[in-house]
Structures are given as structure tokens and as C-alpha cells.
Amino acid sequence: MQGAGKALHELLVSAQCCGCLTAGVYESAKLMNVDPDNVAFCLLAMDKEDEGDIALQIHFTLIQAFCCENDIDIVRVSDVPKLAAIVGPSEESGEPRDLHCILITNPNEDGWKDPALEKLNLFCEESRNVNDWVPTIALPE
Question: What residues does the Ribosomal protein eL8/eL30/eS12/Gadd45 domain cover (predicted)?
């Protein structure tokens, strides 16, 4: 579990540097609709205060179904402030962004050979083998 958290942290930093990170439920849904084959990984994040948000729960259910249908690995994170510390504000506006859904996309046609992504793909595969289809990962301190 700890290794998966560290790999997720590395992947988020790497993807942001490469311009392969899409943040926001609406932005992610738009990208999945236009170019689902380019999505390499999906992360859903929710804090305790978000648990009563029915609209967000519906979005998550639809995103999870889409990811399962299109063989996109997906994980959950329950600490949005830690996630915000890693990803930071929007580069364009400097405003905090919606981090409830983050997609990692392939920067080129050959796919992405990021070791952190490969570790997370293996983690997700192992989780599915024990019927945990959307595993939760704890981000490192």
C-alpha cells in the first residue's frame, strides 16, 4: 500500500511536468468523451465533507463505469489537501482547481513508459484479483 502511494505521488508530479494531467470532473469527462484511448490512469478524490454530495457520487459512478468499460485503471484517494499540495493550483489562472477527478494521459502514440505508472497498473491488477475494483491509496506524508 505504501509503495502505491509513493508511486502515485511520483506519477502525479511526472504527469504534471509533461502536461499529461487533466484535473476536474467536467474536464475529465470531456476528455474521456473525446479521446478515451489516450487516458492511461484515473484518480478519484473525496474528503469526508464530500460524502454527502449526491451529484459528485453520481459523477464518480459514471466515471468508474466508463473506466471499467475502457480498461482504464482507477484508484481513490481520500485526502484532497495532500493531493492539492502535490498538484498545486491551475497553471493558467493560479486558482485552486477541482481535484475530485484527475486523469493521466499518454503524451505520445507509443504510450507512456513511466515506472510509477507501471507500478500503479500492477497494483490495480492485483487489487482486481481480490475483487477490489477501485482501490483506495493513501498518499505519503
Answer: 7-89
